[in-house]
Amino acid sequence: MDRITKKQALTLFKSADLLGLGMTADNIRKKLHPDGTVTFIIDRNINYTNVCINKCTFCAFWRDEKDPEAYVLNRRKLFNKIKETISLGGTQILIQGGLHPGLDIDYYVDLLKTVKEKFNIHVHGFSPPEICYMADKAGFSIRKTLRILNEAGLDSIPGGGAEILSDRIREKISPKKINKGRWLEVMKEAHLTGMKTTATMMFGSIEGPEDIIEHLDAIRKLQDRTGGFTAFIPWSFQPGNTELGVRDQGLGGSKRKKTNPKSPTPNPFNAATAVEYLRVLALSRIYLDNVPNIQASWVTQGLKPAQVALRFGANDFGSTMLEENVVAAAGVKYKVSINDITTAIKSAGFQPAQRDMYYNIVPTP
Length: 365
Hints:
The protein is of the alpha/beta class. It has helices spanning 6-15, 18-32, 75-87, 105-118, 128-138, 142-152, 167-173, 180-192, 209-226, 274-287, 298-301, 303-309, 326-329, 338-347; strands at 37-41, 43-47, 92-96, 122-125, 156-157, 196-203, 229-236, 293-294, 316-319, 351-354. It is built from 14 helices and 10 strands.
């Protein structure tokens, strides 16, 4: 199949039959992964702080520095979380948090070094907004900051902070966050230094189909240059407890007063349906012909839609998520066990296999 254009992708997104779109994506998945294996990883999301100066309107997790619920995770708790992860067969920790004005690059370097001294575990951490914040505070370039963090023990970088890679949308939902160009710069520099990363997309807020295609195109173009993305993970906006969930964004609703994101509130948004999720996932598999893996998101959609996603282009079931706090803050708390994941994969007609960040299969007892 020839590479599709942005115009063709937009037409597919708007008018293609869902099952036909899914079949096309599934056929691409079969060509890329003909052995019928669906992978997953055992890891844990560790959020070292919930203090964040960005205060994104779609986020229910952030707190002000003086908020009684604000925290910076101490080392004892951090180490206990890592010990538990390893005891359950985990090979990786995903460590990320807010942009805390009281933390500088020395904090992150010391954090990485102490983790690596005590544990033999892959550290997948610090999204592009965090990397930029560290670099700006230290007066360093992105490249220098990444080199320092890599030498201290950072192994790979998650795709967080991407949301929608359209500055028109970013200015509305996260005006204090880094722009599209800086997100891509971090990923490019990481790839050029030899670090692998993932790419994500949060959809279902205020963006349109054109914005989704712009996002996919940005990922595909960078991957053409560097080949550093191991996987793409689309997931849907969860409006619960968020400022964006109660605010009109020019979509025709009535103006509403901004609310405290900590307090549950009604909202005009409905989380993306399973049908909408599958359409975006299938299109991602079709458009991103140079990204080897597409990950299903049971964290936002639940186990059954994620299982169906395996026939809509996904070949990876993501993480066991021994801990997850950011989506949970929006009131979405799907929990699955390793057995749940392997059973779902087998029931869909695939063979489950545990992997690492680089999609190497991990031998299991």
